[in-house]
Amino acid sequence: MIMSAPVRTRIAPSPTGAPHLGTAYMALFNLAFARKHGGQFILRIEDTDRQRSSVQSEQAIFDALKWAGIEWDEGPDCGGNHGPYRQSERLDLYEKEINRLIEKGFAYRCFCTPERLNQLRASQMANKETPRYDGHCLSLSPEESAQRAKSEPFVVRMKIPESGECTFTDELRGEVTIDWTQIDHQVIRKTDGFPTYHLANVVDDHYMGISHVIRGEEWISSTPKHVLLYQYLGWDAPEFVHLPLLRNPDKSKLSKRKNPTSIFYFRDAGYLPEALINYLGMMGYTLPDQREIFSLGELSESFDIKRISLGGPIFDLAKLKWLNGRYLREQLQPEEVVERLQAWKANPDFLGKIMPLALQRLETFSDFFPLAQFLLSEQPEFDLETLTGKLQPDQPAKLLKIAEWELEKVTHWDRQTLSSIFQNISETEEIKLKHLMPLFFVAMSGAPVSLPLFDGLALLGPDLTRVRLRKAINQLGESGNGLSKKGLKALEKDYTARYGSRID
Fold this sequence. Notes:
The chain is mainly α.
């Protein structure tokens, strides 16, 4: 890999939920590559999804990456010479380039209604064809298109060659060739005026001087669109590197259904950020001397992107725990462990939040830690018989799943919000709250009685709460009292009708 220009890499997460482990994974390798070559690492926020993006999620990205030890040279919080670093603040630039593409005949306005597009898709699928846009609006004259745009909603699509192939070079995979017939006429501007990822990332990478796009392999199939946009706009494309994705132990794509995926989960569960970053660095990469324990600085110093393995890296929580234990025993002095423990949850601020909840049940100091243990453990154990209590055999899994879906919607995690959610579940399912609560007490704390549930959940936080819910659901499934695929599908349909659409 020849470095003819200053090395500049980036990550561009969307502020639409909890900061994902995959974001830290991609950030790590982008940062290591930039540091190795004396370049810069940029954080950009892709907030074009106006319905789901939030200021809170953006701040969470900053906080999570900084906790993990990931620092950037330019970004929304620290500025730089290539800003602004939020896509929502760059709309004029996107509009200029979109108009240039339309004027050159490389893009066109599409006025097709959602109804027509749905009918088209259904027809293609019925004929066992790959669903793709049929170019219906491609024949509109520039004059008619411009006139209709004054009064009708529209998207803008990029033109795709009708035949031939696109060949590009991936630094890990060599030449990659994809037939143009596999590529759809991609929407690059939505009806709300915001660009899609495909247009925005190309424009931003160009104007921010990004030299190397290091991202997940799920973007390989989209790369021809990006290569074509660079050609249409008359720009040189960056170097492309597509990293293998993190996998669950069953080799499926890492997902919150099977593994904790929020960076905050690992912080709140008591993992060391150095151990987490070390483990992510081991995902598909080995240092030349084969050592298992290394810092971010040591990784960057020896980093050679050609050493990344293309095999799907398996994120194994048990191996991370083993590595974290080694850090505690081998990398920290006992007094440092005490300091870290105090900073984690053995501090006056956190204990002060627990104490008012515990006092009503406290008779001696020795009662405190059993009461508070569920706030200080990663995943407490529980007995299935205690979990199900007096509920009917088919009820616990359904109720836990409904709670999981409802809690996914929560943006402000506090006692009042949580209380209202469980009250709504109680009323909707026609189960008295006093009969419903033991299920969640056990799932969260391992015991039928503990600290007040809603106050406890507020302190536990969303990530640990959701993981514990999924653990309980999984254990019910293993015992034969879970939800079948058919039962889950039926429950989801019923849930949508009574609670509204769920959020993944």
